[in-house]
Write a structure and sequence with these properties.
Structural class: mainly beta
Distance between the termini: 24 Å
CATH architecture of the largest domain: Beta Barrel
Number of domains: 2
CATH class of the largest domain: Mainly Beta
Radius of gyration: 21 Å
Number of helices: 7
């Protein structure tokens, strides 16, 4: 499910938002034998953005296997003249949100038209700075049910196929999945402090946390020893602010591979029970992944280095970018390289060395700050002042 283990979206008020160029839903799509379509998607920090047209209006939609139904932004729905149900209150991570429904919406994708039996209508425009552009909607579980979807993280490609004739690539590892309340689950095994713990994990392309565990699971299994290094961080999800912690496990086994030293984030909330948590983009992108719900399976093909230790944020800061705006520092972790460099929340990063940060785009900026050992001179604007900061990245946590 789309969520962020970081600071509240209140930081978006520090800069104005502006419209971005409308996507072209006909670009970069290639039909394959009339049965499947390969299309170029846009990946931001592991999140998959697809071009969708609703009632003639184009926009960016997130492909999110962890959300149990599809969503449309309330402003987009209003502009399309959709008839909406009465407002209702829905619990979400971080708090409750107001939500409506619209029935039988036709969406146009590069892979063809798709009719959703219904769409939830939700105002999630405040999440735009976390992906660097306005978000018009979210393609959830109902979209995955109607298609076979292959995600090629390495090349930024999606293949959307009909379930009827799909066979799958030879040599792929088959992972059994099952569906509960519109959410896909699979089994993994976690190792920490010479102990193995089986874990029921939701497979969530909309999570940028590789392992996002429920606090109840961590506590009940005593998964994280009390003396292990951990970092306390704030967060934001669809419903608002959350409280979380970050550490590393010894390893996780998934998809026939043992991935060393994965980063794990877990919530302070101890009330959620029934599963371990989510397996998200930083671990999924080590594979070429096919969602084949018609046969209740994932097909995973490892990329080179798929079992290497996870490299996460090495600067100790969250950066955001309002659509067509500047790259800004939203959160600084205590004791991190960013704090040592003198950076503060609200700082605008104009340049990284000689590179203009806003021109790089949010995804590339975040990738740049995942390089332990890299030293950069950052040109920063703080209020009316300009300053230089020397940032030396290192492995965190």
């Amino acid at each position: 499910m789309l969520e962020r283990w970081f600071l509240s979206v209140a930081v978006v008020c520090l800069a104005a938002c502006a419209p971005v160029d409308a996507p072209n839903p006909d670009a970069d799509a290639e039909a394959v034998s009339g049965e499947a379509t390969v299309l170029q998607a846009d990946f931001v920090d592991g999140l998959i953005l697809v071009e969708v047209v609703v009632e003639g209006t184009p926009g960016w939609w997130i492909l999110d296997s962890g959300y149990d139904y599809s969503l449309i932004d309330s402003t987009v729905a209003a502009n399309a003249g959709m008839q909406l149900s009465a407002m209702e209150t829905i619990p979400q991570p971080g708090g409750s949100v107001s939500q409506q429904w619209t029935m039988s919406a036709s969406l146009s994708l590069p892979s063809g038209s798709w009719t959703a039996d219904s769409l939830a209508v939700l105002n999630f425009a405040g999440l735009a700075p976390f992906v660097g552009r306005p978000m018009a909607g979210l393609l959830g579980h109902d979209f995955f049910v109607d298609h076979v979807i292959t995600i090629d993280y390495e090349n930024g490609l999606l293949t959307v196929a009909s379930p009827d004739s799909y066979q799958g690539p030879a040599g792929a590892t088959e992972v059994s999945v099952w569906i509960e309340d519109g959410e896909p689950f699979a089994l993994g095994v976690l190792w920490a402090a010479n102990r193995s713990v089986p874990a029921k994990l939701k497979i969530d392309t909309g999570s940028i946390s590789g392992l996002g565990l429920n606090g109840s699971f961590v506590a009940q299994n005593a998964l994280i020893p009390s003396d292990w290094p951990r970092t306390s961080i704030g967060g934001v999800a669809v419903g608002g602010e959350t409280e979380n912690f970050v550490a590393r496990l010894d390893s996780i086994r998934f998809g026939g591979r043992v991935i060393r030293e994965p980063i794990v984030a877990w919530s302070a909330d101890l009330e959620r029970i029934g599963d371990a948590g989510t397996l998200g983009a930083p671990l999924l992108e080590r594979f070429r992944v096919t969602f084949d719900y018609a046969r209740m399976r994932l097909l995973v093909e490892p990329r080179p280095g798929s079992d290497d230790p996870e490299v996460g944020d090495s600067a100790g800061m969250l950066v955001v970018q309002p659509p067509a705006g500047d790259v800004m520092v939203a959160q600084i972790l205590p004791g991190s390289p960013a704090e040592e460099a003198g950076l503060q929340p609200g700082d605008v990063i104009q340049r990284i060395g000689t590179l203009v940060a806003a021109d790089l785009g949010l995804g590339q900026v975040r990738r740049h700050f995942k390089q332990p050992g890299t030293v950069d001179t950052l040109s920063v604007v703080r209020g009316s002042s300009e300053l230089q900061a020397i940032l030396e990245q290192r492995r965190l946590p």
